[in-house]
Amino acid sequence: MLLLSRITWTPKGNDMKLETILTHTGACLDARIWAKTQPDLETAWSECKRSDWMLWLLARTTLDQDDPRFRLMACDFAEAVLIYVPAGEDRPRQAIEVARRFAAGDATREELSAAGGAAWAAWAAAWAAAWAAAGDSAGDSAGAAAWAAAWAAAWAAARAAAWAAAWAAQSDIIRRYFPECPEIKPELLHKAV
């Protein structure tokens, strides 16, 4: 059983369970149900395959939100989807490189902003091209509707497996930067007492 001692998670101290903390800090029902299966926070952190839950918890820790590990972690997330960027489109990769340099103190906010703007422009261009291709294939509205229907069907068919795989991969990335769960904010713990 996970117990709380003062404001840090330890195996000795008060008898507050992880599930109780999650309930009082507003965690979703699925996370609270899963937490019941975990003996302690350390085990839960090392076994969790839901990056969305881990990121939610990280936002409730005493970590400084400007910690460069957050930016580096986001870069790793972004690099994982570069395979979907059209060949020859380098702006997203360049934006990730600038973000990594910024985290290391080797790029300015202006460089970061410019690279981010270029990456968003690439994303917008890709969506515009996809919609144009759908429109060219079967008339504007019919092609767009067909493209949207096909996309929705494919999304529905693969969504659960894709999300599970993405969450698990991202969970491993999170643990690369945060091997142990950081301390929960004391003010959140006091609400749960």
Could you explain how this protein is built, in words?
This protein is mostly helical. The chain contains 9 helices and 2 strands, in the order ββααααααααα. The chain has helices at about 20-25, 30-35, 40-45, 50-60, 70-80, 90-105, 110-140, 140-175, 185-190, and strands spanning about 5, 10. Strand 1 (about 5) and strand 2 form a beta hairpin.
Give a quick set of tags describing it.
two-stranded antiparallel sheet, globular, disordered N terminus
Please render the helix and strand layout as text.
Blueprint: E1 3-5, E2 8-10, H1 18-24, H2 29-35, H3 41-47, H4 51-58, H5 68-80, H6 91-103, H7 109-138, H8 140-177, H9 186-192
Antiparallel strand pairs: 1-2
Helix pairs in contact: 1-2, 1-9, 4-8, 5-6, 5-8, 6-7, 7-8
Count structural domains. 2
Rounded to the nearest angstrom, the radius of gyration is 21 Å
Q: What overall form do the CA principal axes indicate?
A: globular
Q: Element order, helices and strands? A: EEHHHHHHHHH
Quaternary structure classification:
single chain
Contiguous runs where pLDDT drops below 50 for at least 5 residues: 1-15
Q: Helicity, in percent? A: 55-70%
Structure summary:
This protein is mainly α and 193 residues long.
